[in-house]
Amino acid sequence: MRIFVFYSNTIRTDGKFKDIYYSGRVDIVIHSIIHAFFVSNGLRKNIIFDLILNGPPDPPRRVKIESNLETPWSKKDVASLLSSALKKFNKRREPTYAFPGVFVEKKDFRGIIEEYRGLGRNIYLLDPNGEFIENIEIKNPVFVVGDFLGIPKKEKKWLEEFSIKVSLGNIPYFSSQTIMIVNWYLDKIKYFDEYWSTEDKFKDWVKEYKK
Hints:
The structure is a single chain. The mean pLDDT is 93. The chain has one domain (2-210): SPOUT methyltransferase, trefoil knot domain (Alpha/beta knot, 3-Layer(aba) Sandwich). It has six helices and eleven strands. By secondary structure, the chain is α/β, with parallel strands linked by helices. Strands 6-7-5-4-1-9-8-10 form an eight-stranded mixed sheet. Strands 2-3-11 form a three-stranded antiparallel sheet.
């Protein structure tokens, strides 16, 4: 299983995404989710994407997305899925399976990291000062990625006590590009690289579009 934990400093927790700036730059996480799950005419089978929201009005929020063919989404409506999932949780005020493969709860960053550590997962912190990814062993990974503001210093210092710092080289990439490159490298070493073909679903969409 490939697990990504994405720390967002700014995305709103109420699901009101009327534009990318008001929402706290939800566009960044949309691109990151697309690069985590989607390949051309396909959906990766072994992905968990844990999105930690720390924006207004009521942080934190955890939106956990797991590979599932029944999740009602596509590349063009990830924002709608996130918005609807958050609104369902905010209405119920309890841990919520909003859609197949999409779970929402009120849980903070440290709680989620400790949850994975308790399951025996290794924490890999994407950091330009880390060891180059091709020089380390990848085993039971949880890759921690920050948004455009990065992971807060207090949380990063805490992570550094037990995590493995991983670098992708000297070029500073966008968060979504970082996820894409990690996926490419894991594909290269054949680490949980299976995916479902969604070509038939795409053909159905084209038919509907042309009507």
